[in-house]
Amino acid sequence: MKKIAITQRLIANLSYNETREALDIQYSKLIRTAGFLPIILPYEIDFNDYFTEFKIDGILLTGGNDLNSVNENSLSKQRDVYEKGLIKFAIENSIPLFGICRGLQVIAEYFGSNFRKVAGHVAVYHNLNINKNSRYSKDLIELGEVNSFHNFAIDTLGKDLIPSATSPDGTIKAVEHKKYRIFGQMWHSERETPFKENEVSLIQKIFNENYH
What we know:
It contains 6 helices and 14 strands. Strand 13 and strand 14 form a beta hairpin. 39% of the residues are buried. It is globular and about 45 Å long. The protein has a single domain, classed as Class I glutamine amidotransferase (GATase) domain (Rossmann fold, 3-Layer(aba) Sandwich). By secondary structure, the protein is α/β, with parallel strands linked by helices.
């Protein structure tokens, strides 16, 4: 069974003077539903240890926490550094990498994108306009409406990425790298009850497909 490493959000609990790692339990359930085994990554342990000890087959960068560049915060900065290290590792080791919401944003920033604040993208559903040049175009067309829970969107997309899908107002909702095994989506598949079969199928393709 393929193993997928999953990042967590960071939360400051001031009443206990603690920094806590947190993960919606639906993420692990989603990855397991797709046929993979979730491996949760802690921030204070070098992620290289996990890739050395286990055969990690893919990486999921999850939602939660703004990027430090749009909302300056020490925990966001810590998470940015950690996840950008994972992106570099994924590229160097040809490991497929998938981002959800903030996960897409950190991917986009890694490759030189910047962001703007947007309205009308929280707790709503959007149809998708699909880029016919996306390697996932056939899978994305099958999705129909997707949910949306974000206040920031890509303004200028880095030159190494292509927009895989946009909302009707032109907001980028999915990106992929032109060369590497990297895809990000702004919608939260883990928040659907039950999970949408077509969204699970897309995740399966991302982690199972062969690149040439």
